[in-house]
Amino acid sequence: MQKTNDRPQVYELDGAAEICGLGEPYLKRVQDKGTEEAVVALEKGSASKRAPNPDPPFAPSNLDWHMDDINRLEAGNKIIEAVRRRQREFAQKYPGREIF
Fold first, then answer.
1. Tell me: the pLDDT tens digits for 63-93?
2. Contact, 74 vs 80, CB < 8 A?
3. What is the Cα–Cα distance from 74 to 66, expressed in whole angstroms?
4. N or C: which end of the chain has fewer CB within 10 A?
């Protein structure tokens, strides 16, 4: 790196002249609507080339979580009850995004 007294020849200011970028911009905003559609089509084409999901490492099973025992053990536990209450509130506030 060298110190110089020369000012940069190429710079770009934003509309309010609050932000200055030195050198040639590597991205430029395009207002053309056709370009936006082309980008969306390009992204969809790229997503379609994605590799398929791998097979699960374990075969599906009918695992019994013994939820009745879990509920019995959680009953009366103030910490667990507070967590479950927050989970219910979250599910009511954001329907379709249940975390449990």
1. 888 889 988 888 899 999 999 899 889 888 8
2. yes
3. 13
4. N
State both tokens at 33.
Answer: 């609507």
Q: What's the whole-model pTM score?
A: 0.32
The two tokens of residue 4 are 């110089």
Quick check: 72 and 66 in contact, CB under 8 A?
A: no
Decide if pLDDT at 1 tops 90.
no
| Nearest one of 97, 76, 78, 75 to 88, comparing CA atoms | 97
Residue range 48-57, pLDDT digits in tens: 787 888 898 9
Three-state DSSP state, 13: strand
**Contact criterion met (CB below 8 Å) for 23 and 10:** yes
Structure tokens at 43: 């992204």
Q: CB-based contacts of 62: which residues, under 8 Å, 6+ apart?
A: none
Q: Show the tokens assigned to 59.
A: 């075969």
